[in-house]
Description:
Mean pLDDT: 94
Structural class: alpha/beta
Number of strands: 12
Order of helices and strands: EEEEEEEEEEHEHEHHH
Shape: globular
Strand content: 15-25%
Number of domains: 2
Helix content: 25-40%
Oligomer: single chain
Radius of gyration: 19 Å
CATH superfamily of the largest domain: Alpha/Beta hydrolase fold, catalytic domain
CATH class of the largest domain: Alpha Beta
Low-confidence stretches: none
CATH topology of the largest domain: Rossmann fold
Strand order of the largest sheet: 1-4-8-5-11-12
Amino acid sequence: MKNELTVDTSVGIVQTQYFTFAEPPDEMVMVSGKTLGPITLAYETYGKLNEKKNNAILILHALSGSAHAAGYHTEHDAYPGWWDHYIGPGKAFDTNKYFVICSNVIGGCSGSTGPSSINPKTGKEYALDFPIVTIQDMVHAQRHLINYLGIEKLLAVAGGSMGGMQALQWSISYPDRVQSVIAIATAASLSAQGIAFHEVGRQAIMRDPNWNNGNYYHATNPSNGLSLARMIGHITYLSEKLMHEKFGRRL
């Protein structure tokens, strides 16, 4: 299915770029105390960085997002990036005015270093050996990318859900590096109920017969458990109104 590119409102065809840092022995120290490196971040940019480098906005994705926030990778893509409605010429994040950046978080496995990446110490996928990643770790890695792009201060950081948590963390970890924060549908911490739902999702994956203690990269994926976990997750993602619109009975 060929997409319909609208020149006036779309950023058009975009390309994912990659930035690598934390080369050993200068590995990144995680909140857990463990080290990780080298680290690659996948990222995309839309619009142009001005001469003063003061028009940059960092977009932060939610749990299952990626760096592909707007536009298309090819003219044959069926769908644009996940926030295409809001990023582009004349849109909320107007690429005629702003230089918009979006990167895949570490651990995200959509181009950035994560459990499916090769551990240089073993030559195999990290799998469960990958360090626990916190929101603070994600933001710390993003700061390296912003430094690489030569940006001293971001005009704004913006995101929803887990992306909103990252936006809030930017204001805590690097308040002098960000002018404003746009935190949408988020919280400073996950509620006890949210943690409980996430644990049920994890158990659904780990009880799939194909889980194999996380070492499934060259075998059958635990797709049934993952599908169930995703269904459980969506119950927590939707408001009561949206739940009714999607699942409410019409008898």
